[in-house]
Amino acid sequence: MEELIEQLKQQIIEQLNLEDLEPEDIDPEEPLFGNGLGLDSIDALELIVLLEKQYGIKIENPKDGQKIFFSVKSMAEFITEHKK
Amino acid sequence: MASKIVITGIGIITSIGRNAEETFHSLVNGKSGVKPIKILETIHKDKFVAGEIPLTHDELITLSGTRLKPPFTRTALLGMIAARQAWEDAGLNMDDNVRTGLVSATTTGGMDRTELHYNDFLHKDEPNPYIETHHAGNSTEMIARDLHISDYLTTVSTACSSSLNSIMFGARLIKNGIVDRVVAGGTDALTKFTLNGFNTLMILDKTLCRPFDEQRAGLNLGEGAAYLVLEKEEDARKTGKHIYAELSGYANANDAFHQTASSEEGEGPFLAMKKALQKAALSPDEIDYINVHGTGTENNDLTEGRAMIRLFGENMPAFSSTKPYTGHTLGAAGAVESVFSILALQNNTIFANLNFETPIPETGLKPLTGVIKKELKYVLTNSFGFGGNDSSIIFSKPDVRIKNLPEGSVKTGMGKPVYINGIGSVAPQETLDPDRFLDVVIAVEDKYLQIKKPNYRDYINPKALRRMSKIVRMGIVSAKTALEDAAIEQPGAIVTGTGMGCQRDTEKFLNSLLDNHENLMNPTAFIQSTHNTISAQIALMSGNLNHNMAYVHRTFSFESALLDGLVLINGNEANEVLVGGIDEITEESWLMKTRLDYFKGNPVSNLELLGDNQPGGMAGESAAFFVLSSKKTENSYARLSGVDTFFNPSGDAEIKDMIVSFLEQHSLATSDVDLVLLGYNGDREFDKVYDETAGKLFGNNSTGYFKHLCGEHDTASAFATWIAARILKTGTIPQVVLKTGRNNKTVKKILIYNHFRNINHSLILLEKS
């Protein structure tokens, strides 16, 4: 899980072009949206693509993203559960 | 007293009909054109339905009856078919010498062919004809050539509200005396680019769209074109023409909330509808029917509904979305639904909102689900687009209105004086230091000229910066600089011109579409690829809710934006307008255009540009923004006295006539002009046009040039305007700008003359304020 979290941080930074951030700046339990990292709905769509591209997991309803993308940790848990 | 604007001709082609008659028949019979995709070659054929016109490329050519030669894009063909119908419906021809304009809208431009040939564009060293048809102004020029319209033409692109905005601009052109009648509308073909783009946003309903229904799950895409003929009422009466309707109100507002989503309470939509009512001098309860935007996405229908409740309260007029018939035709939607609204008025008939069952709980609004007959006087139609671009138009039955507001003429220079009170530019030279004015010139030997990169973080916060490609950054830095220079925070309007728009984002999305075969694509580049991204981002960053526009017609782009600024100020619709011109160079766009000999293919030294033997100009890029104002201030740079554009003149003699008559309109002789800035770009074949026209007319005046400083690009004239404004304020002509003549006399009047390959010619006149 730790390894996956670190990998995810790196992938998020790259995918969302978060140039100012280093992986260690992201607290895995901190919310990605709103007050935390401050991501928005366009980023959520990018994360859906990331999940499919990197982990082969398809999300059909963007509303499901709200829970899955709550934090890096919740993303990692979801991936562990659903990875083929 | 300005005239009322009336509609004397309509033309339309969508998936529910090839003309107005077929369209009306489908609308009253609840016949939808949204079906499985057959013509578009996409891997998503079985996944999505669309409002596709069931005609192949060749069948469309036949239907158009055009005598023009290929290449044709699907977007151009649809536009030609619908515009010709409107033209013939109004009984127009060009023999009567009435000044006629064409304002057309599109979002996809030539993308329907580009996406088929893009790999060839890049990898085959040959002049593929569809490289030329890619730009957004192409379909407009094809329509203009087909109908022989040349007095005025431009192209609008503000995502899904584009063609309501083209109709509005058409009306303003007539009211300000620029032309006497206008063909206005829009065209967009279904493309893989847009289908995949909306798919990445996850807002496509796989079944039939269900606007205003609780279960709505997104939109269906469609394609089509529609045009209206706008004329002055007295002209239409004089010739005894059938008048369909009066264009009695119109407005554009910006939501300034999010790049793709509307604000919770629908602020932009609310303001657009409210301002349109004000313009028409109507109260909300006088509206009989609203043809809503109603795309069927969760966000649109909820926020549009809320905005309607805010404006109409308990007295909600009958309303319906007609998107379930045609799908969302993007840049054509506003014009398509304007034709629907006019057909509703004509026939006292309101069309049903198909596929509706249960109201949205938050609004409880119920659209009409059956066709009803009802006496209609005033019909409102809405179109809302990405970048928070929201527009509303009101059509009324002829003869029901009395009120009318006076407006002056910009064309004759009889309008209000307009001043340039602030400027800002990002260019391949040092432009951001107010104490320097081209005293040290950046010399480059390269394939193209690129901007001197500012420190973007000084202007844009990193969170916003991360998604922005170069062109958006350049635009924002220039815009902010101009606003600060003029000490203005909220201009009454933001208007941009860009010939090629966000090329890098378009290339990114297109390459990923082709490389990944329509799989696993990213939404960001698609969102950013819309032509109004820059004007929208400026509004978003400053919370500006006012008129927000993007003109995208090659070397007319900046000039159209300037003209919009002038007419907005002249018509008392804004006191200050932020106007800018902006284009970026990318490796791919440079490469493609070297194949057409538009750009030089080998490195060239910018300071020796005019001696170069290679065909084409030296490519480049720049952004330049201006705060136009009705008030002169201590900071005023110049008076912007006039702007005009000319399409496809017959030869040097006609060009000379155009220049002389432009100056005459402003009560000037050629000898009155102190400095003429010319668009020499190092392409010997086309630089000759300057020698033979301006060279002959202005032999004794000082002349200057500027493209060795910024490179050739569609909005280079904006950079020339920046130079001219500074010359008029500082009283010095930088040596590097001067081509002939001396720089020791006082400069009071500067004329900028630019042309693109002897097709698109433009003039801008600035005078000392």
Summary, kept brief:
The complex is a heterodimer of chains A (84) and B (769). With 84 residues, chain A is mostly helical.
Query: Average pLDDT value of chain B?
Result: 96
The oligomeric status of these chains comes to heterodimer
* Count of DSSP-assigned helices of chain B: 25
Structural class of the secondary elements of chain A? mainly alpha
Number of strands of chain B: 28
Shape of chain A: globular
The named CATH superfamily of chain A: ACP-like
Shape of chain B: globular
For the sheet with most strands of chain A, the description reads: none
DSSP helix fraction of chain A: 40-55%
Mean pLDDT of chain A: 92
CATH architecture of chain A: Orthogonal Bundle
Structural class of chain B: alpha/beta
**Helix and strand string of chain A, N-terminal first?**
HHHH
User: What is the strand tally of chain A?
Assistant: 0
Largest sheet of chain B: 11 strands, mixed
The level-1 CATH class of chain A: Mainly Alpha
- Beta-strand content bin of chain B: 15-25%
Low-confidence parts of chain B = none
Strand and helix layout:
The complex is a heterodimer of chains A (84) and B (769).
Chain A: H1 2-15, H2 41-55, H3 65-68, H4 72-82
Chain B: E1 5-14, H1 20-28, E2 35-36, E3 49-51, H2 57-64, H3 74-89, E4 100-105, H4 111-123, H5 129-132, H6 138-147, E5 152-156, H7 162-175, E6 181-188, H8 192-200, E7 221-222, E8 224-232, H9 233-238, E9 245-254, H10 267-279, E10 289-291, H11 298-312, E11 318-320, H12 323-326, H13 333-347, E12 349-350, E13 372-373, E14 378-385, E15 389-396, E16 419-426, E17 445-446, H14 462-465, H15 470-486, E18 493-497, H16 503-515, H17 523-528, H18 533-542, E19 547-551, H19 557-570, E20 576-583, H20 587-595, E21 604-605, E22 622-629, E23 638-647, H21 652-665, E24 675-678, H22 684-692, H23 694-697, E25 702-705, H24 707-710, H25 716-730, E26 738-740, E27 749-756, E28 760-767
Helix pairs in contact in B: 2-3, 3-6, 7-13, 10-11, 15-18
